[in-house]
Amino acid sequence: MDHFLYRDGQLMAEDVPLSDIAAAVGTPVYVYSAATLLRHFRLFDEALAGMPHLVCYAMKSLSNVAVLKLLGDAGAGMDVVSAGEYLRAKAAGVPGDRIVFSGVGKTRQEMRLALEGGIRQFNVESEPEMVALSEVAVCLGTVAPITVRVNPDVDAKTHAKIATGKSENKFGIPISRAREVYAMAASLPGLKVIGIDVHIGSQLTELAPFEAAYLKVAELTVQLRADGHEITRLDLGGGLGIPYVRDNTAPPLPSEYGELIRRTVGHLGCEIEIEPGRLISGNAGILLTQVIYVKSGEDREFLILDGAMNDLIRPAMYEAHHDIVPVAEPAPGHDRVSYDIVGPICESGDTFAKGRMMPKLADGDLVAFRSAGAYGAVMSSEYNSRLLVPEVLVQGDHFAVIRPRPTFDEMISRDTIPSWL
Ligand code: LLP
After folding, report:
1. Rg of the chain over CA atoms, in angstroms?
2. Phi (first) and psi of residue 368, to 5 degrees
3. CB 376 near ligand 1, within 6 Å
């Protein structure tokens, strides 16, 4: 459930008409609902009730500092994958002992930054990374708490570009080699092994792949303990999918996912961490755009929007489906038209949907892309020298711009012309 519903013929973000936001901020613009973000975080938190746990929001999905503050104040931890994300979490007031550092290629500078600023744990992904982290920690006179990310060789049954748990993927160390890698970790002076990490992919719509992975982690926990390691924490990753197509079968609920965790690893007495991103932020955001032109092609109608692939790249990059709805509620029994929905960018890849049945629209109409909160604004760019898309946060009947649209001057003045030109 989200908080983008029609009321009095208008699509609302909570209690704010989206047309008010378009009038005040212009389009394209991302709009987030605070109530939806909090609701989704709490669903995960409640799903793990009774087990010691921390829900570490995967901030790569939506990393605006205002959103991080909202979730951090509600008790969320953060899963970060870069120095920039670490500093954003800190800027939002999240304490280091609630920040987990993931990622396959952490640099020594990033390790140092997190060790100095405070960190809950590093999820390390390779032997050379272990050596580097141990050296950095020793140099700073400290010890880095770590889990090792294992690759369980499980098919997540998701889009190939976002599957991470098969042996052919770059992530983690093969679970078959886990015992020797843990032995090596234990021998390094700057590391303290505290647990195991796994993450098999994103937008998973079934529980079975999670179950296969978590059962392997449970078995490994027993083996590693027998080898003398203290395994007190399991980081089970993120990845639970959301419904992008409204009429499709719904992915499992956080409560069902929580039950699965309890059943597969609950008996081990470990503290549980999860790293959900998309399920917290995805349906908490929309991309609000305006129709520039309705253009008739030879055999089709094009809906040309002011939003483009640089603002929302998921359809171009993953063939992703986003529901696209008019802001003015269509009248009952309205005519429907098939549109190719495109942006103004100069390549045919700038296509959001082909042959999409929509109510008849005209120049100037507002349309909203649903489920755009996750991997939307964070993946935007200035391609075609379009201004970076702004962001708005709604709470109840008020809203605030949480990232303004830059000016053309700001964009252009970042470039510098060398003196010899
Ligand atoms: N933990 C780790 C280690 C991850 O790599 C990811 C996502 C997550 C947690 C969060 O997964 P989520 O709960 O959001 O599924 N740009 C793509 C998605 C890339 C996901 C990358 N890793 C998209 O737009 O579909």
Report:
1. 23
2. -120, 135
3. no
CA nearest to 170, candidates 105, 217, 220, 121: 105
1 half-sphere exposure, CB direction, 13 A CA radius: 5
Q: How many independent structural domains does the chain possess?
A: 2
Give the count of beta carbons closer than 10 Å to the beta carbon of residue 137.
23
Clarify whether 346 is annotated catalytic.
Answer: yes
Tens digit of pLDDT for each residue in 188-240? 999 999 999 999 999 999 999 999 999 999 999 999 999 999 999 999 999 99
Task: Report pLDDT for 1.
Answer: 67
Out of 243, 274, 305, pick the residue that ends a domain: 274
* Residues facing 316 on adjacent strands: none
Kindly state whether residues 338 and 196 are assigned to the same domain: no
Query: Mean pLDDT over residues 327-345, rounded?
Result: 96
Same domain, 225 and 309: no
204 and 331 inside one domain:
no
Instruction: State the amino acid at position 384 in one-letter form.
Output: N
**Atom of ligand 1 minimally distant from the CA of 204:** 15
Out of 56, 139, 270, 346, the active site residue is 346
User: How far is the C-alpha of 81 from the C-alpha of 170, rounded, in Å?
Assistant: 15
Residue 378 lies in a domain: yes
pTM for this model (two decimals)? 0.97
Q: How far is the CA of 316 from the centre of ligand 1 (A)?
A: 17
Provide the domain limits for residue 182: 103-274
